[in-house]
Amino acid sequence: MFQDGFIKAAAATPHLRVADPHWNTDQILALADRAAAQGVQVLCFPELCVTGYTCSDLFLQDLLLENALEELRRMVRHSQGIKMLTVVGLPLRLDNRLFNCAAVLSDGRLLGLVPKTYIPNYGEFYERRHFSPASAAVSRTFMLDDQEIPFGTDLLFRCRENAEFQVAAEICEDLWVPVSPGALHALAGASLIVNPSASNETVGKASYRRELVKAQSAKCVCAYVYASAGEGESSTDLVFAGQNLIAENGVLLAENPPFAGEGDGLLVSHIDVMKLLGERRRMTSFLAQLEGAENQLMPRRHISFSLAPEESALQYPVEPLPFVPQNSAHLYERCEEIFAIQVAGLTQRMRHIHASHAVVNISGGLDSTLALLVTARAFDALGLPREGITALTLPGFGTTDRTYHNALSLMRLLGCTIREISIVPAVRQHFSDIGQDADNHDVTYENSQARERTQIAMDIANQLGCPVIGTGDLSELALGWATYNGDHMSMYGVNAGVPKTLVRHLVRHVAEHMGGEVKDVLLDIVATPVSPELLPHKNGEIQQKTEDIVGPYELHDFYLYQMVRFGFPPRKVYRLAQVAFAGSYDDAVILKWLKVFVRRFFAQQYKRSCLPDGPKVGSVSLSPRGDWRMPSDATARAWLDDLEGLG
């Protein structure tokens, strides 16, 4: 029913004839049948689409209203056996008034009628001439063939298969007011708002409408399906362009742009209800205005409906690199913001401890390069000479000429104080002291080198009375790909909030701005395979490539984002990864590294529990003092069991 928390929604714009309810209903039913065949579970049509929005004084004709009511009966009969929640607009008489309504129907039942709350009467709109606002209604039910149909703006439609999934409707102008009915519905529990609309087209209105729908979905932490009138409406004074929109928590999932088709289009997208409900639980301020009796919402009437199972291919945008904007302008802005945050964090720390020096270990790899660039910019901001940055190169058994020379060149070009200390003699002595065979290239062999490098940096920092700047990134913290009390430790970790997939872009971003010889060195560092260089090299070539050992960082960053940011179960993460990396990785590879991620993420929490200070830069952080607090001895069994039987 709710496979991985998704439901399939659609907005439909039929080709209309003004004041011809029978013909219009034929078009509506044809589109409804198409939607049902595609597995759509919630379908929204435009405002007053049974008659047409532009009937004007014909709305005062009893014959038109009777015909519209008869066509509503036909739509209800047609829906028998179809478990799809359908919302369609039509005019209805009640209490000696005329109301602009959204009829909600499913599986042979008219579930409810929602009248429009705010009736526009300005500019090109004269709806008050014909329609009354919802507040004018006295009755709370509408009689249809001896059946009492719930009528009002207090209706929430609740799914039997998942009671947390609730749908509400607001109509056109209702969206444009400061406190919309949809916002109140969201506070009352609606996670999907549908809007049957007839918004005409004027210059600039399409972009404003798009941003309004996105903003409403973000503010209400909901999904929003907006269906607008299109071809067939009267062009006497206005033009309607059929701009349909589906948004989710501020993100536009799908759009039929204005004038994009012939007015008979069906806009379909999956909506992630699990994500929305999870976000609301995480955002403890979402329901804060309900606390206190004076702010309680009016009671809602809940009306149950059922949905058919939906198991079609996922129609939902899934970015393979969630931390990296695909738009070049957005990527530029993201890099500028993150670099500024890193620099500001280090600048504040340096001021606080009255430090005029800093120590950074430089390997010639991406992470230490970014840390050095941040440190150099921080020194510039503080008005300190860059000679106060002691940049250490500490070659060991696996250091290659490429990384060694890149490290030296970068330090020289940035104007740092360069110190080169080989760790080989000290580590060999250490091996002798603890009885470690130097030919046994095990974890002790590797970690001894990492800890020796950290010890040297810490001791030199003590001599200078300054901090060691940490280089490890967010992805390494997630995987525990750091030596405990080795490169894991520092006085301030400037990269702690930056995932590996973004580190590369940040270094490239700085390279493009610096130009010259520095740019050449930085771009070569970007092109160098990621490696801790702790195992002996052969003929100067890197033998220890991190991604060959723990898996591709682009996969791990994807897993990290989906599991930590949204709390998704591994089975759902696997499905999303299949969509995101289709054509790049086969299912077996995705599943293999997902299992590795889960195992390592749980097993390595103890390293994150004593993480040095460092700035949060994005929506995902693993700081034990901030976003992520997890027991170090939690078991991964349930998460690994969730992946059983896949692949």
Describe the secondary-structure layout.
Layout: E1 6-12, H1 21-37, E2 42-44, H2 62-78, E3 85-94, E4 97-106, E5 109-115, E6 141-144, E7 147-150, E8 155-159, E9 166-169, H3 181-187, E10 192-197, H4 205-219, E11 223-228, E12 244-248, E13 251-256, E14 266-272, H5 273-282, E15 301-305, H6 328-352, E16 358-361, H7 366-382, E17 389-393, H8 401-414, E18 417-420, H9 424-434, H10 443-464, E19 469-470, H11 474-479, E20 492-493, H12 500-514, H13 516-526, H14 546-550, H15 553-565, H16 570-580, H17 587-603, H18 605-608, H19 637-641
Parallel strand pairs: 1-2, 2-3, 8-15, 9-10, 10-11, 16-17, 17-18, 19-20
Antiparallel strand pairs: 1-14, 3-4, 4-5, 6-7, 8-9, 11-12, 12-13
Helix pairs in contact: 1-2, 6-7, 6-12, 7-8, 7-12, 8-13, 9-10, 12-13, 15-16, 15-17, 16-17
Query: What ranges have pLDDT less than 50 throughout 5 or more consecutive residues?
Result: none
Looking at the overall shape, the CATH architecture of the largest domain is 3-Layer(aba) Sandwich
- Strand share of the residues? 15-25%
Q: Based on CA inertia axes, which overall geometry fits?
A: elongated
What name does the CATH topology of the largest domain carry? Rossmann fold
CATH class of the largest domain: Alpha Beta
Strand order of the largest sheet: 13-12-11-10-9-8-15
The averaged pLDDT comes out at 93
Secondary structure: number of strands: 20
- Could you say which structural class the secondary elements and strand pairing correspond to? alpha/beta
How many helices does DSSP assign?
19
